[in-house]
Write a structure and sequence with these properties.
By secondary structure, the protein is mostly helical. It has 13 helices and two strands. Strands 1-2 form a two-stranded antiparallel ribbon. Helix 2 crosses helix 11 and helix 4 runs antiparallel to helix 10.
Length: about 325
């Protein structure tokens, strides 16, 4: 029944996009391109949540990991004059924050909600205290246009003429699905998130697997933060992430802890933002801007209400493992 609703919703959305494309090609492509760019950090952040919770660790600190990485990535690129180095600094910062969470939640067995909240507080405080104006990036991030594919009507300009961050986000979702469900690493990861005792009995080091997964997932949060400051905004401002880390957790749940499901949910959320922005620009509805900006979040609440109780998290998520 849930699959039927999902398929019906997907068909309705696709049909609406095709009709809009036939009516105004340029505007439709513009809205879809904006939607995809908006979804990029949400896709990456949702993958962070999936890796962590599939390993049995709740990561409330995605917001702080992204914010700290956006800060480090932007100023790293601005000071060194190298966008690639700045991106690497952002990813490295995310991994450090991931290791910090892993130390608290896995090694010290802290309450995982509190550990993530501490990360958010630290990131907000440090980025606000050390924030400085006057820095600019050395260049604009380049785009990569894939020949032939980029010429396909509607799909081509949207998916095959983007920056490297966008391609990385899409490939990450697909690759993570393959890794989770088609490899030994994925089997072990799902085992420590569902039945860590059985995994331990089978020879899997539960603590090490969780620690490494949470740390590596922090690198994806770092990539999301670097995207926001280096490509999307080309600057850094206090509170740049604007709640995207928490939104990504909702997307993860709606996607049923599945990378492909979360990818679709993130794209849907981005589309809602794209449509809302277009409505605002065209002044179709004469209501305050704040109410139009609320539309994507209202849709998210509605969708979460629909799937509430119908999807279940990994059985051992949020539970510290004690070796018997």
């Amino acid at each position: 029944m849930r699959a039927r609703y999902a398929y019906t919703l997907t068909i309705a959305i696709v049909a609406g996009i095709i009709v809009a494309f036939m009516m105004d090609e340029n505007r439709t492509v513009s809205v879809l391109s904006f939607s995809l760019r908006y979804a990029v950090p949400l896709i990456l952040a949702a993958m962070v949540g999936i890796v962590c919770e599939r390993s049995g660790i709740i990561n409330i600190g995605i917001e702080g990991q992204m914010l700290m990485s956006a800060f480090a990535g932007f100023f790293g690129a601005a000071i060194t004059g190298n966008l690639i180095l700045g991106t690497m600094i952002g990813v490295g910062t995310g991994m450090i924050m991931g290791a910090f969470l892993a130390t608290g939640a896995v090694t010290w067995k802290m309450d995982q909600i509190i550990a993530g909240t501490i990360i958010n507080i630290i990131a907000t405080g440090l980025t606000s205290f050390f924030y400085s104006q006057g820095y600019v990036l050395p260049a604009i991030t380049p785009t990569l246009r894939i020949p032939i594919l980029a010429d396909i009507p509607l799909v081509g300009p949207v998916f095959f003429d983007n920056g490297l961050f966008t391609y990385a986000a899409l490939l990450t979702a697909v690759l993570l699905w393959v890794l989770l469900f088609k490899t030994i690493w994925g089997l072990r990861t799902r085992a420590v998130g569902e039945k860590p005792g059985s995994a331990d009995t089978s020879g899997v080091n539960v603590q090490r697997t969780r620690f490494l997964n949470v740390t590596l997932a922090g690198g994806l949060a770092g990539l999301a933060g670097a995207y926001l400051s280096i490509e999307a905004a080309s600057t850094f401002e206090r509170g740049l992430t604007a709640g995207r880390g928490f939104t990504a957790l909702a997307i993860m749940i709606f996607g049923a802890w599945n990378p492909i499901g979360a990818l679709g949910a993130a794209l849907f959320f981005g589309l809602a933002n794209g449509v809302a922005s277009q409505l605002q620009a065209d002044e179709v509805i004469a209501i305050p801007q704040q109410f139009i900006n609320m539309l994507p979040y209202i849709l998210t609440i509605v969708l979460l209400a629909i799937v509430s109780g119908r999807v279940k998290p990994p059985a051992a998520v949020g539970k510290p493992y004690e070796k018997e």
